[in-house]
Design a protein that fits this description.
Distance between the termini: 61 Å
Low-confidence stretches: 1-11, 13-20
Number of domains: 2
Length: about 350
């Protein structure tokens, strides 16, 4: 049976009996995704191939995304939350189920990565997109001597030239891992130790920044930034890249698994499935990984990248060995929010 016919029959079987809007054929798709996360030319190719207009908005944190989603009236089809917020969206009934028969490229996702999806183990509501973690980017022309550790934020020579992510789970979790604790701890003593450490780091940073740190680093405003590699590397010219080092600290970093999810009230669910499957097409996914400098979780895309002698990811799956997936803490998240409020007071 031709794939197009199989796809159509699968769609009819799944959508039959579905309640509410979103399962009619349309010519639009509304995406709400992290800044920098999918190259513009990939989105443009999808629009051209499927004759679908994509409205593409961006956010800089899970909190920003979540606040907009629960405020209602967004009209988004796809969002790309990290695992803790995927859990929250599932628990609150805000997601539509995905039909994996409409996403045949799902079978190409690395089984090791699938096994990490403990928050949606049967993939009823999510399809993995990328796995990784934030790390530290250093301008080696300004900071030539440093340890590949979170202790870089204690260096006396970087005062006013550093930033930390404006993200409580990432930033508090990083301090916890430096201290040897889990980024999912709810132990009050451990969390207080993390706060005290972060207050010391805060003395060196100019601000908490999840949006402009890449441009600031590129211009020389910042020398040391806590960031996702792609948010900075993509802003640099060839000369600046030679003076730049990204690393995952030896203590590890809070790890993320970002997934595509479809909102319950999405108006264009058919197109959402088309887009997710398109992204995991090996040639497309390989392009994205090469652009971002990410390791591939798509097995066929990984084979394509292995043949590309010019591709050098910012880190490998093996580099994530000491990192830990941070999870939904439920009511205990309030402990992190209190620490974050204390840390951010005066800013």
């Amino acid at each position: 049976m031709k794939r197009s016919l199989f796809w159509l029959l699968s769609l009819l079987a799944f959508s039959c009996g579905q309640q509410g809007d979103g399962w009619q054929e349309t010519d639009q798709l509304n995406i709400y995704n992290w800044t920098y996360y999918i190259p513009d030319d990939v989105v443009a190719d999808f629009q051209k191939e499927f004759n679908i207009k994509v409205v593409y908005d961006q956010y800089s944190s899970n909190e920003e995304m979540y606040a907009k989603i629960i405020s209602g009236g967004t009209g988004y089809d796809i969002v790309v939350p990290t695992q803790d917020y995927t859990s929250i969206l599932i628990a609150q009934g805000l997601l539509a189920p995905v039909n994996l028969e409409l996403i045949p490229n799902f079978q190409l996702i690395n089984p090791t990565i699938k096994a990490k999806n403990t928050f949606d183990p049967e993939f009823k509501f999510s399809v993995p997109y990328m796995i990784g973690c934030a790390g530290i980017v250093v301008d080696t022309s300004k900071v030539p001597n440093f340890e590949r550790s979170w202790s870089v934020f204690l260096l006396p020579g970087i005062k006013g030239k550093a930033t930390l992510l404006d993200d409580p789970r990432q930033t508090i979790g990083s301090a916890l891992m430096y201290l040897g604790y889990s980024p999912n701890t709810v132990n009050d003593d451990e969390l207080n130790q993390a706060l005290n450490l972060l207050l010391k780091w805060k003395e060196n940073i100019l601000r908490f920044d999840s949006e402009s740190q890449g441009k600031g680093f590129a211009s020389g405003e910042f020398w040391v930034v806590h960031s996702y590699a792609e948010n900075v590397i993509t802003e640099l010219d060839a000369v600046k890249r030679l003076k730049t080092q990204f690393f995952i600290p030896k203590e590890g970093s809070p790890m993320y698994l970002d997934s595509f999810v479809i909102l319950k009230n999405a108006p264009n669910k058919i197109n959402a499935h088309k887009f997710i499957n398109f992204i995991h097409r090996p040639d497309v996914y390989a392009r994205i990984c090469k652009h971002l400098g990410y390791p591939s979780i798509n097995t066929k895309a990984a084979e394509i990248l292995a043949l590309d002698t010019e591709f050098k990811p910012n880190y490998t799956i093996e580099d994530l060995a000491t990192s830990v997936l941070y999870l939904d803490l439920g009511e205990n998240l309030e402990k992190y929010n209190r620490i974050w409020a204390q840390l951010r007071s005066g800013n």
